Amino acid sequence: MKHTYQKASLVLALGLFMGGAQAGSSRDTVALFKNAGQSAAYFDNSYGYAVFPTVDKAGFVVGGAYGRGRVYQEGRFVGTASITQASIGFQAGVQGYSEIVFFEDKRAMDEFTAGSFAFDADASVVAVTAAASGSAGTEGVSGGASGGKKDAKTAGSYRKGVAVFTIVKGGLMYNASIAGQKFSYKARTDG
Prior knowledge:
Elements: H1 2-20, H2 26-34, H3 37-40, H4 42-45, E1 48-73, E2 76-103, H5 106-113, E3 117-119, E4 125-127, E5 130-137, E6 140-147, E7 162-187
Parallel strand pairs: 4-7
Antiparallel strand pairs: 1-2, 2-7, 3-7, 5-6
C-alpha cells in the first residue's frame, strides 16, 4: 500500500508540475545563457548548440525528465530536439531547468544530429548562477530573467566536443542520484 501511495504521489506531482510549467522561448533562454559568464563565451566559439528552454524533472528514488528545444548551427535554426533523462538513487521532488548543449565542431554537431545522442552518467554539466521567473494571472503571462556572474571567468570546458550548462528555473529537488540523458533530433523541413 505504501509503494502504491508513493507512486501515485509522484505521478500526481509530475503531472501538476509539467502541466503548470511555462515553456519559455528559445530566444529568451539563449539571452539568459548569453548573460551568464559561465556560458557566454561559448556562443562565439562553438559550431552550434541545442537550447532547451524548459526541462521538467521529477523523482522519488527513480526519476525522469523531459524537454523540447531548438538546434542552431552557426547561429542558424536547423531543427528541433527533445531530451529525456532517467535517474536512480536518492532523490525526491520536482524541478524545472533550462539547458544548453554547445558543440565544439562539425564532428560533434554531426554526432548529435545523426539521430539518437546520449550522455553517460559521468557527463560534466555546469550549473549557471542565474535566475529565471515567470507568472500567469488575469492580466496575462509575464516572465523575466537575470544573468549572474556576467564578469565571471567562463567555467566548464568541452568534453568529447560537447559542453553543457543548466539554469534552475524553479521547484525543489533533493538529489544524490546517477542520471543519463538521451537526445533525439529532427531536421528543419521548411527550408
